[in-house]
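hey can u check if this looks right to u? its 52 residues, i copy pasted from the old doc so theres a chance i mangled smth
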Amino acid sequence: MLATVIISIVLIVMVAAIIRKLYRDKKQGVSSCGGGCSGCPHASACHKETSV
């Protein structure tokens, strides 16, 4: 029983850390795909054009 609780807590902490990292990266404009945007159909969703 105790092992199940400990493993569950560890997994919850790991998932929370991953979500936090993804949120911070998104907020800073860092792409999570790690690839180039030249052939990506979702490039416009990652890199919004800003008009000056």
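The radius of gyration is 17 Å.
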